[in-house]
Structure formats: structure tokens, C-alpha cells
Amino acid sequence: MHDAVTRPTPPAGAAWPRRITQAVAIGGITVGGGHPVVVQSMTNTDTADVAGSVKQVAELWRAGSELVRLTVNNPESAAAIPRIREKLDMMGVPVPLIGDFHYNGHQLLAGEPACAEALAKYRINPGNVGFGKKRDTQFAQLIEFAIQYGKPVRIGANWGSLDQSLAAQLMDENSRREDPWDAGRVLREALIRSALDSAERAVEIGLPRDRIVLSAKVSGVQELIAVYRDLAQRSDFALHLGLTEAGIGSKGIVASSAALAVLLQEGIGDTIRISLTPDPGQSRTQEVIVAQELLQTTGQRAFTPMVTACPGCGRTTSEFFQELAKVVQNHVRGKMPEWKITHPGAENMTLAVMGCVVNGPGESRHANIGISLPGTGEAPAAPVFVDGEKKVTLRGENIAQEFVALIDGYVESKYARGAG
């Protein structure tokens, strides 16, 4: 056994180079091997509800999810997968689908060959593939299906469904140590060993190393960081990052960001999911947006123009700058699916919506396009800066529309294919 690895802090302003892992092809997406970190998400529909599942998968894909996972837990959901795939293809939604299997995956894949073929990847949990003497047999059957259909597998160990026999074995070994580990460290080791030992077993069965992704999820920030540092040190498999059961609202966002930002900064992680609990009736797409914003703010990738906006203070008693910032953010996010095709590079654009004279002109000059709105008691004029130079001053009732039009014009002149 190895202790968790504590890495020294890189120099200020620097980051660890990306950890180079096995490159895994999942449909048309490559995970690992130095490729950009991939965003994935998961549906919460009944997979057997083909129409509802298709609708949600398409929403997640349009929001930017590059892989989408669906629960496959009974014959009805397994039978629905090829129909979901067919309807998505008819809609022009090519996102690879991942099947999430627990307990009975070997039976479902055997009973529905079309499901086994339609999925781009299988996700299996070594703690839930079976129990007792059946565990090894059923795990092997799942791996053999992956080999037969040429599919990669994510072997995803989870704190909440840990292999209890392995945990008991490591506890026994620990009791005989001259200097025993604390219980938390033993359980972390059990989680890591569950993933690593299962991966090596899959390789022995015949699954190539470049068709394996590992994860070892826990719900605590510091535990997740320790587990993945150790996992990264002890293998070259591609790693999927995620804080399991992160929670609802700001708690889930903050906890996931706190854990994953540290690991990403250290070059650890090839694909991520933000496991948010959505508010009742709310869209599932928030987890995709948070994942994108996390990758963009940590400098990993760019997805949509970033809007800098001041928080407001006693100088900005009007809410107009807040409303304008929201209009601008919604506008560029809504335009990105089109701009991604017709205006590549627009996702790197920076925008600023500032509320008064204190930091407004300075922040606006630092952005590609920035507007400095008048604060309380200031002259009713809003200078707009383009690439550091004052371009125009906006006044009147149509500032929002005019500023958005300036953004669109800038994108057309700078990022249209063939521009410049």
C-alpha cells in the first residue's frame, strides 16, 4: 500500500503540466492522452421513457455536455437505449451515450445486444457488480461484453458502495501494522485498490488499457483530493473527476469547485461531472454550465465569452448594470452553438459590464468589449471600450440593445471564418 501523495506547490502563476494518461476513444470524443478535459453529465429521466430521455439528452448536449450517461437498470431501460440513440441521430445530436450499470448489467447486456451496441461506453461499479462468489464471474461477463462490442469501460468505485470484503481485508491487515493507519486512510486505500485491482483484472481478461477510465468518488472535498492524488500517482489510466452527491445549489457548486479546481490545477483529471441536485422542476443543464465555467475559469478550456461584472455597492443604486450583465451573459451563451461553427474563437472573447466610474473604465479597457455604466450621481453616459480603446458613448433607453449589437458586430468582424 502507498500513502496519499502530497505534491509541492508550483510557482506563483504556474500550474502543473497535464498528467499524460491513456487516450480513450468514446464515440467521437477522446478522453485522456493530453486531450482537453471533457464535460459529461447524466440524465434523471426514467430511461424507459424514450421521448423524455431523448429530450433531456438533447438539452444537455446543446448546453455543452460532450458525454451523457443514462441509467440502465432493468430490461425496459436496456431496450430503450437503441431507440434513444436512433432518435438522437435523427435529430442531429451525436453525443455519445454511456450506460450506467449496477447489480444486473451482465444480464441486461446479454438480453439486449442492441443496447450493448448502441452505447459508447459502459460504467460499472466494482462494489455493485455482484456479491460473494458471483462478483468475479459477473465482473468478467461485463468486461467480456465490452471486449466483444469494442466498448470502453469506466470502472467507477464509490465511497457509498465500497467493496465490503476488500475493506474488511484491509482493516485486518491494518490491525497487524506496527503503526496502524486511521480508519479513514484505510477506507481511502480500499476505494483506490477497488478501482486499480478491478482495472488490472479487466486487462487480464483482455480489455486493452486504452479502453479503461477510472474514478474513485467520495463526497468530502479533502478526501477526494487525497484519493485522486494517490490514484494519479499509481496508474496511467484516464481519470474521471467528480464529487459524488455534491448537493443542491451553492453548496454543491462550491464543494465541487473546491475539490476539482485543486486537482485540475495539479494536472489531474481527464473528464469531469458536477453532480448537482437540481431544484425541483429545474433544468438539468446547470451541472453542465458549472463544469464549463470551472474549466474556463481555471484556464483549462474556453466555452463561451466570459463576462466580468462588478458586484455593486452604494455607488450603483440602480439595478440596470445587473440587468445588462444578465442580458449579455444570456445572449452570448445563446449564440455560442452558432458561433462555435460560424465564428470559431468567439468563445475566447472577454466582456465587461461595470457599474460606476471607480473601476469601470479600467476593467472595460482590459476586456475585448467593455461598458462603464454611470453610477449614482454620475453623468448619464456609458462609454464603450473595444480592445482597450474608447469606441462610442451610449445614452438613452436602448443601451442594452445597442451594446449587444456592438458585441455581435465585433464577433462578425473578428471571428467570422475568413475574417482578417
UniProtKB/TrEMBL annotation:
Residues 307-408 form the IspG C-terminal domain. [4Fe-4S] cluster binds at C310, C313, C356, E363. Residues 21-291 form the IspG TIM-barrel domain. One of its GO terms (molecular function) is 4-hydroxy-3-methylbut-2-en-1-yl diphosphate synthase activity (ferredoxin). Its cofactor is [4Fe-4S] cluster. It is an enzyme of class 1 (oxidoreductase). The keyword Nucleotide-binding does not apply. Belongs to the IspG family. Converts 2C-methyl-D-erythritol 2,4-cyclodiphosphate (ME-2,4cPP) into 1-hydroxy-2-methyl-2-(E)-butenyl 4-diphosphate. HAMAP family: IspG. This is 4-hydroxy-3-methylbut-2-en-1-yl diphosphate synthase (flavodoxin). The lineage of its organism: Bacteria, Pseudomonadati, Pseudomonadota, Gammaproteobacteria, Lysobacterales.
